[in-house]
Amino acid sequence: MTYGSKQVNSLPPYLFSIFHQKKKKLQEQGIDVIDLGIGAPDLPTPSFIINRLTVEASKPDNHKYSPYGGCQEFKLAVASFYKKHYNVSLNPETEVLALIGSKEGIAHLISAALDPGDGVLVPDPGYPVYQSAIHLAYGAGIPFPLDEKNGYVPQLESISESELQRSKLLLLNYPSNPTGATVGLDTFTKAADFAKKHKLGLVHDAAYDLVTFDDYKAPSILQVPGAKEIAVEFGSLSKSFNMTGWRIGYVVGNKELIRSLSIVKSNTDTSQFLPIQKAGAAALNSDFSSVKSNNAIYSKRIDNMLAALKEIGMKADKPRGTFFIWAKVPGGYSSQNFAEKLLDEAGVIVTPGTAFGLKGEGYIRISLTVPIDRLREAAARMKKMMGGGSP
Ligand SMILES: *Cc1c(COP(=O)(O)O)cnc(C)c1O
């Protein structure tokens, strides 16, 4: 590792790759492993999106570089989605930017906004990529706790003055990975006031904006009046349209943050392949019936798993969004212990809550991204392991 930089060499190992290695080893021994650790849809990309890609891929004009910030059609589709879905108006030229997945955009925004040593307030538990991107940008990740007893709503008043002095950005994520928690617009309004008062850029990761159940509709942070003065929101087609491998997302909102990000990006990646952007536009311009049927599938899987957890005495609530169950581990176990026991004794992979921060201790994240028969099998094995009867 002599060629790696200090920042790269001091990154903690990506937890998911550790479980992946263990999974491979068990599979080589002939053990049937059920992986409920993967945070990505198992369902295929809807065919109308694939069809658009195929048509566009055969046009020579689409083989050239994309405009830096993304093509007009994609940016217009994002703006029109925000108008239709949230009643938020966006200028597609200055307030919308195409991304090669939102992960890329979040990481590059962090490096575009930070000077060495600057702080970023990040949710704990939260998506681990935030901390890694901050570290790689020579910044300091400052976790703020999210507690079950407060419904995982940030208690911003508890952030210390010195932490605030140091910080440049405040990151939020609802519906939340890993907790599945959702908030109302009032929480975003408070966060926007707080960010204004303390001169923070407010960054909302809305990767699960459309993955919601029953009549619940997740708000956009840009629905807060005046939010564009301080806030950007990241969106992704990965989770809502089963397009993780396509690498297409966007960021909307504050012009200055978007401009800084676009400077980093135009010197790094020259945007996404045009046919993928156009297929992404088709997704955003669609009637969302594919999203609805996906959500119905996740909802059913979640109900199924929750019923099984209840039988073995594990406590978890039904989330209003995401495809995750955030469950308390049984008494006497740590997150890591319990996740290891599940893998060793039941052949079921879940993610220990501590993969998402210190406050994740005492929980596991169960990802509902496998077909229902596999979930039933996983539930039966868990019941057997916990002595809750035979499968
Ligand atoms: C999956 C995920 C992302 C990344 O999505 P891409 O658009 O595929 O890069 C970002 N944030 C959260 C919280 C996620 O779970």
Automatic annotation (TrEMBL):
CDD domains: AAT_like. The keyword Membrane does not apply. GO terms for molecular function: transaminase activity. It comes from the Bacteria. Transmembrane segments: none annotated. Keywords: Aminotransferase, Transferase. Its EC number is 2.6.1.-. Residues 32-381 form the Aminotransferase class I/classII large domain. InterPro entries: Aminotransferase_I/II_large, LL-DAP_aminotransferase, NHTrfase_class1_PyrdxlP-BS, PyrdxlP-dep_Trfase, PyrdxlP-dep_Trfase_major, PyrdxlP-dep_Trfase_small. Pfam families: Aminotran_1_2. PROSITE patterns: AA_TRANSFER_CLASS_1. Its cofactor is pyridoxal 5'-phosphate. Belongs to the class-I pyridoxal-phosphate-dependent aminotransferase family. This is Aminotransferase.
